[in-house]
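Quick look at the format.
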Amino acid sequence: MIMEFISIQQAMDKGEGEVSLRGWVNRERGSNKLKFIVLRDSTNTIQCVISRADVGDDKFAEADKLQVEASLEIHGEIKKDERAPTGYELHVKDLNVVGLSDSFPIQPGQSREFMDDNRHLLLRSSKMVAMLKIRSTIFGAIHNYFRAEGFFEYQSPIFQSMQCEGGSTLFECNYYGKPVYLAQTWQLYAEPAIFALEKIYTVAPSFRAEKSKTSRHLTEYWHAEMEAAWIEFTKLQDYSEGLLKAVVKEVLDKNLTDLKILERDIEKLKPTLEKPFPRMTYSDALKILNEKAGMNVEWGKDLRTIEEDKLSELYDTPVIVTDYPKKVKAFYMKEVADNPDVVQGFDVIAPEHYGEIVGASQREDDLEKLKQRLLDQGENLDEYEFYFDTRKYGSVPHGGFGLGVERVIAWVCGLDNIKDAIPFPRTMLRWKP
């Protein structure tokens, strides 16, 4: 084999002639004269026909030993064939077995636990490959959107000395004999940077020690966050809507084949591009739930999964819910001027029962209010001195949001479980492989 190796998709685009390919055996069958192999690489699959008469007895004997996931290099002639699974067939003239495979353990119909125990092998499956490609597109779309909007990428530490989203969900670590915590969010370390860069964003892992076994929760997930100086509450909502529209557009532009593999109905994604997102206050949402869904939710209670799901059934786009009760939100959210029981915070709730995908707020700039809310939560104010300095030296109106990337991936891909939106999920019961 003397030709340069190309991808399967490049070979199919070429359509005819001699090509050299390399990849892994996806399926195999045959007789003592012919061997049929479906070869896969990261771009596509193609049926390969190996004839004893064409490759000789020795090469055919090698091919006859191949099992699923063996790796090989193949040289042959590609031809269009409508009967083949992907419309093309490769007639093999020569082959080289690179790596033999044992009996591959991943088979259809195996249990969820078995699949997760063998996640390192499950990644090779067509649906996981499709998800991973869409995941890559979504990460790229996030970076592209923020940079196009004039944001600087900025990172915060993973080891942090205090909580931001609630002490009950902290992962504590021994840091040279002192307790520190894995980051729940970048926010407390992002706010100081807006006085230098004004508009910043990050895409980084966050950690929540939530005692939850639902299909929506991970203990380690990827967090797309932004923070901006001089921003108003309405503009903050605009950014969240713009980002989600950009993500969906990028996937529909680049990943239609992958969405088809996942059996995703793309018609359910199109309204996100075509319509403005409904915006309503928390109080309005309770009224809508009462009138249209027969749900009587007491004012002051946070929206649970059941309420979010019911609200999502009423719309075919994400929904922005604003002005939540202060008592159910984080200490840093700014009070509404004429109603101190309510904060300028909002959640974006995805359609189709995918729940909250964005959490956001204007940040409280009254130093004494911040201190009091932390004291009410039993926090040690000494740990927040650096954060308080952001309110002492030229504070400005500012705000930001966090987007759960895996929740967005699950929604865009139409996945039943958020664990299938990340290569190696971490949950209460899953910390390996």
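Next, a different chain entirely:
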Amino acid sequence: MAVKAGADALGLVASMPSGPGVISDATIAEIAAAVAPPVATFLLTSEIKADAISAHVARTGASTVQVVSHIAADESARLAELLPTTRRVQVIHVEDAGALDLIDHYAPHVHAFLLDSGRPSAAVPELGGTGQTHDWRISADFVAVSPLPVFLAGGLNPANAAEAIQTVRPFGLDLCTGVRTNGMLDTGKLRAFMASVSQADAGPAKH
């Protein structure tokens, strides 16, 4: 359904401390094996050690790994050594302007960033799937200075996708709850979201 709607990548959510959309590693492996290029498969992993992340990728066969925790910089460097041919995306949870300070920690070791609205320091860590937006002014500043492509996530839906693109100017959008109804993907919401993206791409930029 997502591919038919025009998605360039599928996010496959493995075990998380909270949030929707979790599926088993076996199901992730099945989907990753079935999806044809050029559509990418993103494994969302909550593992925080390079060896464990690498093993998780090996079990699932995803083409890209999305590290949803703020892992140590040396673990990020180690992961680059272990997975030199796997695309690596580091999630940055935008709680305040301090998010920009993380660019230099990860930029040498990953291929892209993804800005989300999680709270990794909460009693039960929120590592995505919150359905909440964050301060897009911070995200726009992040995009402006990042040497790498930046995806935007967090509370995106058909109603705000165009504004998000025009405000932040990200490389791409990542979403989950905004195109679901009762926890399931909704064809109508997917179509509306893609229409909103197309409208934003055709419209004038906001500065």
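Residues 203-207 have pLDDT under 50 and may be disordered.

See the schema section for token definitions.
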